[in-house]
Design a protein that fits this description.
The structure is a single chain. The protein has 361 residues and is α/β, with parallel strands linked by helices. The chain is 37% helix and 13% strand. It has 2 domains: 7-133, NAD(P)-binding Rossmann-like Domain (Rossmann fold, 3-Layer(aba) Sandwich); 171-360, Rossmann fold (3-Layer(aba) Sandwich), CATH 3.40.50.720. It has helices spanning 33-43, 62-72, 112-122, 135-166, 170-177, 201-210, 217-243, 271-281, 311-316, 331-337, and strands spanning 15-18, 51-54, 83-86, 105-109, 129-131, 252-256, 285-289, 295-297, 303-305, 319-322, 341-343, 358-360. The strands form 3 sheets. Strands 1-2-3-4-5 form a 5-stranded mixed beta sheet, with helices on both faces. A 5-stranded parallel beta sheet has the order 7-6-10-11-12. Strands 8-9 form a two-stranded antiparallel sheet. Helix 1 (33-43) runs parallel beside helix 2 (62-72).
Length: 361
């Protein structure tokens, strides 16, 4: 295996798989600069019988409308001289139940020949390969998967707000509803969406549809609800401090977990970062602990270092907020040593003592 940063080394390769970030711009528009830079670099070394596969999540049409024209400028014909396909990555970081081999792989080629070649490649390492009719369909599959989750999380986050107004436990409600063996899939509320996929991918679809004079209202509403969840969590922290006859200004707030999901070291788009910044703007003294993330960079480029999780640090805080429910956290110990706890993940569900200290989402 060769590890290289030189495009010229692609000349000797039969298969080129593009796996680069696809973030949003400051205006929430797709930023395809990483894809375009990769294609610009590789097309100078494209030759006959090569297979090029894009795995980066993007809006439907990217492969055929942006990448294919650039590669075709080489004079090579797709489906004859080279092949071009899209196959979305489906890895779930931190999930030990599903391996690379066991997760079905979607493939869609620019031509049927491209689909067949790509399917043959992935069948060497993946148990189930699912061919679809086009690159656009393959691109849409990934967008649908993540938009489905984003919209349903947006719905259940709004249900959490509704249950709060009605003084009903949203977690108990969802668990009870999940006993129905058909017609219901449980999703759970939280402090907001994080990661490189869920907060971003629906915007790619919305942007694409805007170019076709169509507004994705349902997706936009879900995104709005999810984006506002950190502010809702802050309001719960403020209320909790008020009950302790403390102002948020000058109070010490200890955040537990800044990773966007449990048991991983990735804080990309994590709502915990927004939460920290909102609290700081209100004058709170904010610290955090995360066993997987020793340092986080805030939006003003300041670095914040993880604080040890000890009896002393817990007792020193006016309020402790559980944002990421890492399995290593001893929840009973945390509650025992804290004055007040905001639980955004139902991590305190099985507590035996100290429930009076806990405010759940």
């Amino acid at each position: 295996m060769l590890l290289t940063t030189e495009y010229q080394d692609l000349t000797d390769q039969d298969v080129i798989i593009i796996c680069v970030p696809t973030p949003l711009s400051k205006t929430k528009d797709p930023d395809l600069s990483y894809i375009l830079a990769a294609v610009e670099g590789l097309r100078k070394h494209l030759h006959k019988d090569q297979l090029v596969i894009l795995e980066s999540t993007t809006y439907p049409g990217t492969t055929d409308e942006l990448i294919l024209p650039l590669l075709s400028e080489t004079g090579l014909e797709v489906g004859v001289d080279f092949c071009l396909s899209f196959s979305p990555e489906r890895i779930d970081p931190g999930n030990t139940q599903y391996s690379l081999r066991s997760i079905p792989k979607i493939v869609g080629g620019t031509t049927p020949v491209c689909t067949d070649v790509t399917q043959t490649l992935y069948q060497q390492v993946i148990d189930t390969v699912v061919p679809v009719s086009s690159t656009g369909t393959a691109e849409m599959v990934k967008i649908l998967e993540n938009t489905f989750r984003s919209v349903n999380i947006g719905l259940v986050n709004e249900i959490a707000l509704i249950c709060d107004k009605l003084d009903i436990d949203v977690w108990e409600t969802i668990d009870a509803a999940a006993t129905k063996p058909f017609g219901f899939i449980p999703f759970y509320p939280g402090p907001g969406l994080g990661g490189h996929c869920l907060p971003i991918d629906p915007h790619y679809l919305s942007w694409k549809l805007k170019t076709l004079d169509y507004t994705t209202r349902f997706i936009a509403l879900a995104s709005e609800v999810n984006s506002n969840m950190p502010y809702y969590v802050v309001s719960k922290i403020v209320d909790t401090l008020n009950n302790l006859e403390k102002s948020v200004k000058g109070s010490k707030v200890f955040i537990l977990g800044v990773a966007y999901k449990p048991d991983i070291g990735d804080e990309r788009e994590s709502p915990a970062i927004d939460l920290i910044e909102i609290l700081e703007l209100k004058g709170a003294h904010v610290s955090y602990h995360d066993p997987y993330i020793p340092t986080v960079t805030l939006k003003d480029d300041r670095n914040l270092e993880s604080t040890d999780l000890t009896m002393t640090t817990l007792r020193a805080a006016d309020c402790v907020a559980i944002i990421t429910n890492h399995r290593v956290y001893d929840i009973q110990f945390i509650v025992d040593q804290s004055r007040a706890v905001i639980d955004t993940r139902n991590a305190t569900k099985d507590l035996t003592n100290g429930r009076e200290k806990v405010t759940k989402l």
